[in-house]
């Protein structure tokens, strides 16, 4: 498809991908300023008045409020983040920041996480306003910095310093839900109604520094390696929350598996199974190692980074288990910790999202799920706002969509973006 013929939603997603908003975490980020300014300029073309908040240099957040027909109804927040995780260009088949269009897809870092949803939010609001319509209720459009670092320099600061942006809002919609997964020869949609707690920890092992040739029984690297292996190989048990229990029961009906074996049920969803199996249990994945400064020197300190995702309500117990697994000789430092969430798969908003999907894909079932990762819904929860994941995409059955998150050659079908824009527009018009 020639770029000049791209649907607007794809063109905006492409433009956003071309802003390198890489976030390495820990305050090391390219910054979201230019992307936020682009979003603000687009909002202005719709007659809206964007507000910017940049609590730290280049970590820019932008918001606009769209007045609804019924100002007595609580406002709805639609939010996205503008930062992306790093991409190593040599690993990709395309330039990850070029916004390449090929094979009917938009390629690039952020195509799935989550500049696609940012574009769908913008264009669905544009659909209404350009037609001279108003949404049913006030909409708060928010685009945050730093989500890929847990939101500590983005949504957390916005909620702390600019809670007025969200005045009157009780519910929110964001990423990682509303997409289709293959179920045999049919498909279903996953609606995200929960998130596991994020706990980033650092393991620290200490020993005695010495010459690399010595017989040495207090080697910090050895001690750390044993702890990392023990934790990384821990088989955390399946533990169902209300959400994952309902997910397993509904998927069992669709797949013909036994609801008594949630792992087998999740495995029957094809490429999505890796995503869904992780929602059934705590996970502790080693993601980084730091030790040593010369080949022939045994260091006295070694460190490892572990990405812990705990089921809601199990955070303290999980940390206690981790300390037991790594042993007394290894310190466990908490680098960042947030909360787990679950909201009901019921109510007017859920009914409206399910109905909107049904009008555009009749007969496709919608299943709730607890996401293994996290979103900026956690920050909004501090304001009493219930957050859902609903970035609707109808996807081909052979596309490993969940594998695109933080993966190589991230891409999204253009017709899926058009579908998502239409579903969101429908939702905003009726809810």
Polypeptide structure, described:
The chain is of the alpha+beta class. Helices cover 31% and strands 27% of the residues. The chain has twelve helices and 21 strands. The strands form six sheets. Strands 3-4-8-5-9-20 form a six-stranded mixed β-sheet, with helices on both faces. Strands 10, 11, 18 and 19 form a four-stranded mixed β-sheet that branches. The two termini are 34 Å apart. The mean pLDDT is 95.
Strand tally: 21
Strand order of the largest sheet: 3-4-8-5-9-20
What portion of the residues fall into strands of 2 or more residues?
25-35%
Distance between the termini: 34 Å
Tell me the helix content. Answer: 25-40%
Return residue spans where pLDDT drops below 50 for at least 5 consecutive residues: none
Summed over residues and divided by their number, the pLDDT gives a mean of 95
The total count of helices amounts to 12
Shape: globular
The whole-angstrom Rg is 22 Å
Largest sheet: 6 strands, mixed
Structural class: alpha+beta
Which labels suit this protein?
six-stranded mixed sheet; alpha+beta; 12 helices; globular
């Amino acid at each position: 498809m020639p770029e000049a013929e791209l649907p607007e939603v794809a063109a905006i997603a492409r433009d956003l991908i071309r802003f390198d908003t890489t976030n390495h975490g820990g305050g090391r980020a390219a910054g979201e300023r230019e992307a936020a300014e682009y979003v603000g300029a687009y909002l202005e073309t719709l007659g809206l008045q964007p507000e910017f908040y940049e609590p730290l240099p280049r970590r820019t957040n932008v918001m606009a409020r769209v007045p609804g027909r019924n100002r007595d109804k609580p406002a709805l927040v639609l939010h996205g983040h503008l930062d992306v995780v790093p991409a190593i260009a040599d690993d990709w088949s395309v330039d990850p920041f070029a916004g390449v269009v090929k094979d009917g897809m938009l390629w690039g870092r952020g195509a799935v996480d989550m500049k696609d949803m940012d574009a769908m939010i913008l264009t669905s609001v544009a659909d209404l306003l350009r037609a001279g319509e108003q949404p049913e209720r006030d909409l708060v459009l928010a685009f945050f910095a730093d989500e890929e670092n847990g939101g500590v320099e983005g949504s957390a600061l916005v909620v702390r310093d600019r809670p007025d942006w969200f005045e009157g809002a009780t519910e929110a919609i964001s990423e990682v839900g509303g997409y289709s997964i293959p179920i045999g020869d049919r498909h279903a949609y996953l609606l995200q109604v929960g998130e596991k707690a994020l706990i980033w920890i650092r393991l620290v092992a200490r020993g005695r520094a010495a010459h690399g040739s010595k017989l040495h029984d207090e080697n910090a690297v050895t001690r750390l390696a044993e702890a990392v292996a023990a934790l990384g190989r821990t088989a955390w048990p399946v533990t169902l929350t209300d959400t994952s229990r309902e997910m397993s029961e509904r998927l069992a009906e669709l797949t013909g598996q036994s609801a008594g074996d949630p792992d087998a049920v999740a495995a029957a969803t094809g490429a999505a199974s890796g995503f869904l199996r992780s929602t059934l249990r705590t996970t502790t994945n080693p993601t980084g190692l730091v030790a040593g400064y010369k080949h022939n020197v045994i260091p006295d300190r070694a460190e490892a980074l572990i990405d812990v995702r705990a089921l809601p309500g199990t955070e303290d117990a999980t940390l206690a288990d981790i300390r037991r697994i790594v042993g007394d000789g290894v310190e466990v430092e908490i680098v960042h910790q947030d909360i787990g969430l679950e909201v009901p798969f019921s109510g007017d908003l859920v009914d409206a999202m399910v109905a909107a999907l049904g009008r555009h894909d009749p007969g496709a079932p919608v299943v709730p799920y607890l996401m293994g990762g996290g979103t900026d819904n956690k920050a909004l929860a501090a304001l009493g706002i219930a957050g859902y994941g609903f970035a609707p995409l109808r996807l081909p059955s052979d596309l490993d969509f969940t594998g695109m998150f933080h993966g190589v050659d991230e891409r999204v079908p253009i017709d899926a973006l058009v579908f998502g824009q239409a579903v969101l527009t429908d939702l905003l018009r009726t809810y």
